[in-house]
Amino acid sequence: MKRWIKHTFWALTLSALLTVPVLAAELSLSFDKQGTTAAVQLRDVGTDRYAAEVTFPISSTQSVQFQGKADTYAMTLDSAAGTVTLYAASSKPLPMSGGALDLGTLTVASGAEVSGTGKAIVLDQSLNRYTYADTAVTVTRNQTPDAPDGDSSGGGTSGGNSSSGTPTVDRTPSVSVNGAGGKVKAANDGSVTITPDAGYQIARILVNGKEVAVTTRLTGLTAADVVVVTFEKIAAETQPTFTDVRPTDWYADAVQFAVSKNLFQGMSATEFGPNVQMNRAMLVTVLYRLSGETAQSGSGFADVDPNEWYGAAVTWAQQNGIVQGITSTTFAPHNTITREQMAAILYRYAKRQGTVQEGDASVLSGFADADAVTPYALPAMRWAVQQGLLSGMGDQTLAPGGFATRAQVATILQRFLTSAQ
Question: pTM score, two decimals?
Answer without folding.
Answer: 0.44
